[in-house]
Design goal:
Elements (H helix, E strand, L loop, with lengths): L7 H30 L2 E3 H7 L4 H9 L6 E3 L2 E5 H9 L7 H24 L1
Antiparallel strand pairs: 1-3, 2-3
Length: about 120
């Protein structure tokens, strides 16, 4: 066994740096958890479950009023972006429909995937 002696000042500096790294890792983990909780909904699901016309969503995208991602030709919106659109009155839908979508969006995504594979 090898014993290493370190000056107390150096030890305290090293300890504080390790604590700072640990805090950073914990904050990063929280951010990742928050991001994963903020799910993605595609254009079809948004228009179907919130009764929003797809042309309305297209107009909002063209006008730059909504943030979205396009992956392999499909348009996706974050749940937080849908909440913002409702808050800013860019789309009209009932709070009940939105809460239903928010609580069950993973189910809707799986159901949508099953419909596609059944064809």
């Amino acid at each position: 066994m090898e014993v290493i002696t370190v000056d107390s000042k150096v030890y305290k500096e090293l300890s504080s740096k390790i604590n700072a790294i640990a805090k950073f890792v914990v904050s990063l983990e929280k951010k990742i958890e928050e991001d994963s909780a903020d799910g993605w909904v595609d254009n079809y699901e948004l228009s179907t479950f919130l009764n929003v016309n797809e042309k309305t969503l297209q107009r909002l995208r063209v006008d730059g009023l909504v943030n979205f991602s396009k992956i392999r030709g499909r348009i996706f919106y974050r749940m937080s972006e849908i909440e913002r659109m409702m808050r800013d009155k860019l789309i009209k839908c009932s709070e009940e429909h939105f809460n239903d979508l928010k609580n069950n969006y993973q189910f809707y995504v799986e159901k949508r995937g099953n419909i596609k594979t059944d064809k």
